[in-house]
Design a protein that fits this description.
Length: 215
């Protein structure tokens, strides 16, 4: 430009999320891991003088908040991507409860009532879907949600289902909100989908995902 060679950037930051050229979000995941482990090391050094409640507040403020921030962007991503965040959550649980590294972590997470990363991502997507269906989400999300209306009088007519669009998984179409939201929504029990209020839905949804993760 004007005789000056401009070097292109492989990543760009938008609202705190680092996007790369192929939308793998690997750079973003590495940034989360680096920051989360830094704070975990600091918390671990003073854990022995902290009450359980105070230690948990620190973990949620400096670690869990980063794991949850914009985690819906990881919906439909590879297990390798989710695993990198799950390792952080596991480490946070060990620091908080002071269990040994060789102890099985799943019972610890269940005792803390922490949803695993995979299900935290599902929770965020389904929460957005509920808001879109009930007019509590921006119009650009509501437009992506299409109620399922069978051509014949079927039992599923009043089941609160959504249309799952056909996508090309080879072009990452299955990671789009327009696919993930109805795909996950239709797997919910009718009693969860039919929740009257947002607070009731969130409570029922967490119970459903908790049972799904630890049953």
């Amino acid at each position: 430009m004007d005789g000056i060679n401009l070097a292109s950037s492989e990543t760009v930051r938008n609202l705190g999320v680092i996007f790369d050229q192929d939308l793998s979000l690997n750079a973003h995941l590495k940034s989360i891991s680096r920051t989360a482990y830094f704070h975990l090391c600091k918390i671990a050094k003073i854990r022995h003088i902290l009450p359980q409640n105070d230690a948990e507040k620190l973990v949620h403020a400096f670690v869990t908040s980063r794991l949850d921030y914009c985690n819906s962007l990881l919906s439909g991503s590879t297990k390798k991507s989710v695993k990198s965040l799950q390792l952080i959550q596991n480490a946070a649980a060990r620091v908080l409860t002071r269990v040994r590294k060789r102890d099985h972590i799943t019972p610890v997470l269940a005792a803390l009532h922490w949803l695993p990363i995979e299900h935290r991502i599902e929770f965020k997507i389904l929460l957005l879907a509920y808001k879109a269906i009930n007019g509590q989400a921006p119009s650009y999300l509501k437009e992506l949600i299409i109620p399922y209306c069978p051509t014949r009088a079927l039992r599923s007519k009043n089941a609160g289902l959504l249309v799952v669009p056909r996508v090309s998984k080879s072009t990452l179409g299955a990671r789009a909100f327009s696919y993930q939201a109805p795909h996950l929504w239709n797997q919910l029990p009718v009693c969860v989908r039919a929740a009257d209020t947002l607070s009731i839905f969130k409570s029922a949804l967490k119970t459903f995902l908790f049972d799904k993760a630890y049953s």
